[in-house]
C-alpha cells in the first residue's frame, strides 16, 4: 500500500497519523493539532500521557531517521508493551547505524574534496580560487565509499530483515490476542 504523507508547518513539532478504513488522515489531524496548539500548550508530560496515536517527528539532521514517539495505551497488556519496546529498539538501532554511517560519509567526502582540490590547484600554474570537482571526479569517491562499506550495508540489511520479521510476528501475535480478548469480553 502506497502511503502519501502531507506535512504541515505549525507550532506543533510532531504530526499524528490516524487510519480510517486503511487510509491515512494525517493532514486533517495535523491541522487539528496546529489549531489546538495555537489555543493552549499543555505540558510535555500531559501530552505524552494523553496521546492516542504515535507521534512522528522531523528527520534527525545526521541520521535522517524520523523519530517516532510510540503511544502508551492506558490498559497496555504485557504483549503490547513488548511490541512497543521492540519497535523502539529497532528504531534506535537503525538511528545509531545511520548516524555513524552518515557521519563517516560526510567526513570522508570532505577529506576527498580537500585532497582533490589541493591536487588540482597544485597542477595549475596560476592561482584560481573557484576550482570545483566534476561529477565524474566525485563518482570516484562514491564508488570507493560504497565498495568499502559493502559488507556493512549487507549486514545492516540482513539484520533489518530479521528485526522486521520479528516485529511482524509480534504484531500478528498482539492482534490475534486482542481479537481473542475482545471476543471473550463480548461473550460474557
Protein architecture, described:
The structure is a single chain. With 188 residues, the chain is mainly alpha-helical. The protein has two domains: 1-53, no CATH class; 75-187. Helices cover 63% and strands 8% of the residues. The strands form two sheets. Strands 1-4-5 form a three-stranded antiparallel sheet. A two-stranded antiparallel sheet has the order 2-3. Strand 4 (55-59) and strand 5 form a beta hairpin.
Which characteristics define this entry?
membrane, elongated, COA8, disordered N terminus, mainly alpha, Apoptogenic protein 1, mitochondrial, two-stranded antiparallel sheet, 188 residues, mitochondrion inner membrane, transit peptide, three-stranded antiparallel beta sheet, 2 domains, 5 strands, 5 helices
Amino acid at each position: 500500500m502506497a502511503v502519501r504523507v502531507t506535512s504541515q508547518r505549525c507550532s506543533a513539532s510532531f504530526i499524528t497519523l490516524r487510519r480510517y478504513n486503511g487510509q491515512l488522515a494525517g493532514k486533517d489531524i495535523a491541522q487539528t493539532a496546529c489549531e489546538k496548539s495555537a489555543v493552549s500548550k499543555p505540558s510535555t508530560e500531559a501530552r505524552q500521557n494523553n496521546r492516542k496515536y504515535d507521534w512522528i517527528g522531523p528527520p534527525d539532521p545526521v541520521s535522517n531517521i524520523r523519530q517516532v514517539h510510540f503511544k502508551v495505551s492506558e490498559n497496555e497488556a504485557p504483549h503490547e508493551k513488548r511490541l512497543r519496546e521492540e519497535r523502539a529498539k529497532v528504531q534506535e538501532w537503525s538511528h545509531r547505524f545511520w548516524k555513524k554511517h552518515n557521519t563517516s560519509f560526510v567526513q570522508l567526502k570532505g577529506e576527498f574534496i580537500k585532497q582533490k582540490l589541493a591536487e588540482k590547484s597544485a597542477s595549475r600554474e596560476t592561482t584560481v580560487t573557484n576550482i570545483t570537482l566534476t561529477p565524474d571526479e566525485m563518482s570516484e569517491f562514491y564508488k570507493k565509499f560504497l565498495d568499502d562499506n559493502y559488507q556493512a550495508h549487507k549486514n545492516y540489511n540482513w539484520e533489518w530483515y530479521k528485526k522486521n520479521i520479528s516485529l511482524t510476528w509480534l504484531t500478528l501475535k498482539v492482534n490475534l490476542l486482542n481479537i481473542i480478548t475482545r471476543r471473550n469480553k463480548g461473550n460474557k
